[in-house]
Design brief:
The complex is a heterodimer of chains A (328) and B (292). Chain A has 328 residues and is mainly alpha-helical. Chain A has a single domain, classed as MetI-like (MetI-like fold). Chain A is built from 15 helices and no strands. The two termini of chain A are 16 Å apart. In chain B, helix 2 packs across helix 3, helix 2 packs across helix 12 and helix 10 runs parallel beside helix 11. The chains are: A mainly alpha (328), B mainly alpha (292).
């Protein structure tokens, strides 16, 4: 059964990837005219334009163009950056690492804290004021744009208290010789703290609300009567019996919100000048450096699709009841 | 579960207190969006000069400028008043589009099942793989930065959650007696879906209208802040973006504080309304389960 699920899930993943390539191919041809017209607009003779069209394969049938395009992206052959004049891979790969380190840190702590607070809100539901306060704070955090919280925290912690740097990933002029050097230093953690806090304030709300709702619905389960009857303390019942069962929807919704979470990543990276894919996407788009934009969009989307896929497999491990027939 | 007669309460009375407050706040901002542009004391886009002819740059709140002025001497209050309209136009239109698409796709996928369901749900899977904001950033830079494109972009992508939830609700409803009897009496699919199933999903539709408002407002705000909003319709996000770009955050708090508060209030209010309708919708489906 689970092999079947695995195959079906892999199929969906590949389908999504193919659809992504098609959508991307289509989007980047939305530009008026073809790339030669919009990129090098202005003083270009028809001969040069024709030559460029031949060079970039724009004279081939659309289907061939698409296959070439897809293969190039999958081989990480993104072309040359218009602005920096170096291969796009060299621009984007280090940033992919920076983004992943940042995003995974924020996601992990936000989900752990969110799920924990969800349990706490249920455990403390007798204290109406406290419960109300938690729900209020959660709602405000969920509904406030990330740049508003981000700017507020920068003003408080960086400008006023000067506890954290204003942005960036390392002190200016830091040289690192290896990946270990780059990510494993106090200076790096010092720069990482505030951005992950800001992103986490946004990310923690979904697991918080879902965990709480899921806990409340599981409180009516029949097997809890047995636990209560044998005299297990309420806290034990909540954490051992209810929370464990309530965890599954949290994982599902976290996975489903990944596509939105990446958006938050873009905003936080831009505010903190974090040298990741998100901030580079914004800067490259403003510079109309389309090879870089295409590469980043492709990497971010495949990142979402892959993380989606992996999280579903983890879900399968956690909940053996999940079957292909049940769908999502 | 309830015993005895019960007075049927109106939907507003059944909302929790936070939902009621949220609704009032939303109505207030809707009113501002409608009449705000006529209330402005100054032109939001022109620099104000004092009698000596000097531009009143970064003036703190005063009687003349209750919310201060910007770097270029523009009146913050006027900009805040004018920012409500584009925010709510985009928010409401995109929410309506995404709720309409999501409810319809969810209805038909759940009711028809089989291939229809399979294809529509794979479409939903694909949309979940698309990173929303990066997609919008790219599309806005390739097309021109127009408000209608923002509305369409949000509306055409963000219906995925609606479709998923509506579908699962329809799946469980499809087997209920009142649907089966309607079908046995010869009601066609259109009739069953829109006259028998849809009315039961209305609280859910309103709930997603409110959540859609939150998603659209946040998406639009992020887009404006990053510099991909409609330059013709400047929003609170654009104001905060301008203040941030000017790099005077530590001195000129008045420039970004009021738009920040406005945007957080509108979207938090919509969130409270959504959660209040969630309670109403949940309790209704609970009742149905007990009756069945």
């Amino acid at each position: 059964m689970s092999t079947r699920y695995l195959l079906a899930r892999t199929g969906v993943m590949l389908l999504t990837l193919a659809a992504l390539l098609a959508i991307q191919f289509f989007i980047f041809r939305l530009m008026p005219g073809d790339p030669t017209a919009s990129i090098l607009a202005g003083g270009m003779t028809p001969e040069i334009q024709a030559e460029l069209q031949r060079l970039w394969g724009l004279d081939k049938p659309l289907a061939n163009q698409f296959i070439d395009y897809a293969l190039n992206l999958l081989r990480l052959d993104f072309g040359i950056s218009f602005y920096k004049n170096v291969p796009v891979v060299e621009v984007v790969l280090p940033r992919l690492g920076n983004t992943l380190v940042f995003m995974v840190t924020a996601m992990i702590w936000a989900n752990v804290v969110g799920a924990f607070l969800g349990v706490a809100a249920v455990a403390l539901r007798r204290f109406r004021v406290l419960e109300g306060l938690m729900l209020f704070v959660g709602s405000v955090a969920r509904a406030t744009p990330l740049f508003v919280t981000g700017i507020l925290l920068i003003l408080i912690f960086s400008y006023y208290f000067e506890w954290f740097p204003l942005g960036g990933m390392h002190k200016v002029g830091t040289v690192h010789y290896s990946l270990w050097d780059k990510y494993m230093s106090l200076d790096f953690l010092h720069h990482l703290a505030l951005p992950t806090l800001v992103a986490g304030i946004f990310y923690f709300t979904t697991p918080f609300f879902v965990m709480r709702a899921s806990m409340l619905s599981h409180l009516k389960d029949h097997h809890l009567s047995l636990a209560r009857a044998k005299g297990a303390p309420p806290t034990w019942i909540l954490t051992r019996h209810v929370a464990r069962n309530a965890l599954n929807p949290v994982i599902t919704t976290t996975v489903l919100s990944l596509g939105f979470a990446v958006g938050g990543q873009v905003v936080v990276e831009t505010i903190f000048r974090w040298p990741g894919l998100g901030s580079e996407l914004v800067f490259s788009t403003l510079r109309r450096d389309y090879p870089v934009v295409q590469a980043i969009f492709f990497l971010i989307s495949s990142m979402v699709i892959l993380m989606n896929y992996l999280a579903d497999l983890i879900y399968l491990l956690l909940d053996p009841r999940v079957r292909y027939e049940q769908g999502r | 579960m309830r015993i005895g007669f019960q007075k049927k309460q109106g939907w507003f009375a059944r909302l929790n207190p936070w939902g009621k407050i949220g609704l009032v706040v939303l109505c207030f901002f809707m009113a501002v969006a409608l009449i705000g542009p006529w209330l402005v004391p100054y032109d939001p886009n022109s620099s104000q000069v004092d009698p000596t002819g000097k531009v009143i740059s970064l003036s703190p709140p005063s009687w003349r400028h209750p919310l201060g002025t910007t770097w270029q001497g523009r009146d913050v209050l006027s900009q805040v008043l004018c920012g409500a309209r584009p925010t709510l136009t985009v928010g409401v239109s995109a929410a309506v589009i995404l709720a309409l698409i999501g409810v319809n796709i969810g209805l038909w996928a759940g009711y028809k099942g089989g291939w229809t369901d399979l294809i529509l749900m794979r479409l939903v899977d694909i949309l979940y793989g698309l990173p929303f904001l990066p997609l919008m950033v790219v599309v806005m830079s390739l097309l021109s930065r127009r408000q209608s494109y923002i509305i369409l972009g949000i509306g055409l992508v963000a219906w995925r959650d609606v479709a998923r939830v509506v579908r699962s609700r329809v799946l469980s409803m499809r087997e209920e007696a009142f649907i089966k009897s309607a079908r046995a009496l010869g009601a066609g699919s259109l009739r069953v879906v829109y006259l028998h199933i849809l009315p039961n999903l209305l609280p859910l539709a309103v709930l997603f209208l409110a959540f859609g408002l939150v998603w659209s407002i946040l998406g639009h705000a992020d887009l404006s802040f990053l510099g991909f909003g409609d330059p013709q319709n400047r929003t609170w996000g654009d104001m905060i973006s301008a203040a941030w770009a000017a790099g005077v955050m530590s001195e000129a708090y008045w420039w970004y504080l009021s738009p920040s508060i406005c945007i957080a209030s509108v979207s938090t209010a919509a969130f409270f309304v959504a959660r209040a309708f969630e309670d109403v919708s949940d309790s209704q489906s609970d009742d149905q389960a007990h009756h069945a």
